[in-house]
Amino acid sequence: MLDLSITTLISSPPEVATFMMQPFISTWNLYPWPESGIPMLLASAGDAEGETYTKGVALAVTLTLIIVYIAAQLFGELAIRIGLPAVLGELIAGLIIGISGLQVLMLGEGTEVASWMVALVSSIAGSSLTLTREIFDGPVQVLFDDYAQNGVGILLFKIGLEADLKELIRVGPQAASVAVAGVILPFALGFWGLSAIFHLGNIPAMFGAAALTATSIGITSRIMQDMDVLKTQEGQIILGAAVLDDILGIAILAVAVGIAEHGTIDMPSVLGTVVNAVLFVSAAIALNRYFGPAYINFLSRLGNPYSILIGAITFLAFMAAVAGAIGLESILGCFAAGIVLGNTSATQALEKACDPLVALFTTIFFVTIGAKTDLTVLNLSNPDSQAGLTIAVFLILVAIATKITAGYFVFTKDKVDRLAIGVGMVPRGEVGLVFAGLGAATGALTASINVAIVLMVMGTTFVAPPMLRWAFTRKAAVSR
């Protein structure tokens, strides 16, 4: 989850930079590099062409960061002033500077940054237009994708720290009932509608229905955190259900991809994924009681005043790596790391120390969601867009209605706001885009259903913040 600072790479000797970047070379080679075959970022300091490339990378990343933060601050402030969560402003900021707007931040495969941005960086850095475009297509995309992943990872780590473990365990059965209903209802209704009403084949209908099952824990938790309702009983149920949704969503995605690619379901793989996820989360809860306090006590005895923070981030990276190694999403490992280190003597200090990291990286995460949203799919002169828009309306209605309905499946005698719980499960965010992306990669999705899934993700992502604010504000008003 943690990446290298570009300034560290630039200031390091060539042999050090090469060593530091070696684990990332295989990934970076997916992007077009100069004809030398290796990134000129690794060229010797005396190489004029390498120095130009290094300068171009630093300038491109810096200018893009400045624009991202200014846009996020501007639209976040506007959102707050009209009574909406800042995260909605950050999503809109992404739309403005992303693929649908100024094209400053272009993160999709095959997308190119705006010519004016390339010309600006090229003129300042003294590099050619071709070289500058390679910079934006390569290291800039990689770094901002990494920053975004860091953002959601640190956010979920902090959410794990803040989670009331006793309350989370207590509401476990309620969260499970919401999660299961929140998967079965949208999948069943979505598959039926896409098959019976829109006459799609079984595989594209399955992918479309599967995309409806997801829940974006990053978006929902950020909104609840901003509203200071994360520690309420409703907030804990939503959090638990969203985590379980991630587990179930991974299993459904494995089934869908398996059928699309091989025509069969690899049940051992699916069951293995579910078992691994359950054991992983259970292990984190168990480690909270013994390992968490002992680890914090060890760190607190070290002389470095930053030992606890550095140790916590190291543990976060370790848990993310373990989750990835056993076939789970690394963000689940980040959340589990927070669970392990929560309710210790250093929890409050860690929460405070994480605040600036959350502010820096999570902002990039939400801006990149908006930046990747392509509004050109709304071109009504295109027949595929017309069909996609019709299907999208159906998917959006199903997506909202079924998740809200799932909130009423909370089996408890406690007085809880079921509507608020259901609304909290609505946003699909980046999780839904993963379904669309993998569906398109397998060739299972037509252009119209792919457009529809993207629009459904956009719709639920943008309506969720005001809906969630309304639901919890209404709850507070009723309680008074």
Structural account:
The chain has 480 residues and is mostly helical. Helix content is 75%, strand content 0%. It contains 19 helices and no strands. The relative contact order is 0.13.
- Provide the succession of SSEs: HHHHHHHHHHHHHHHHHHH
List how many beta strands DSSP finds.
Answer: 0
Low-confidence parts, pLDDT < 50 over ≥5 residues?
A: 1-46
Q: What's the N-to-C terminus distance?
A: 43 Å
* Envelope shape: globular
Major beta sheet summary: none
At a glance:
The chain has 480 residues and is an all-alpha fold.
SSE layout and pairings?
Layout: H1 6-11, H2 14-28, H3 48-81, H4 86-97, H5 115-125, H6 129-162, H7 165-170, H8 172-197, H9 202-211, H10 217-227, H11 233-262, H12 267-300, H13 307-325, H14 330-341, H15 347-371, H16 383-406, H17 418-424, H18 429-441, H19 447-479
